[in-house]
User: What shape does this take?
Amino acid sequence: MKAIKDNKVYTIDQNSKAEYLARGFDIYDDGGKMIARSPSATVPAAQYDELLAKYEELKAQSESKKKGKSGGEPDVSGTE
Assistant: This one.
């Protein structure tokens, strides 16, 4: 697993997890998924997760709109 804070990334084991959390690091598994958020984080985990979900949804919508239009065709939907 990895402990990440600012531009610092450390590979850690289960025994060091609590120490790095106390020092303000977020903990990620080897696949990059967050498994523990620092208790000293300035944004609560629930709010972070909610905003991340909204971001992913908007990103997917944007990508689907880009794929739906081919270059050079005018937009005749009546919206700008």
About this structure: The mean pLDDT is 86. The chain has two helices and four strands. The first strand starts at residue 2 and ends at 5.
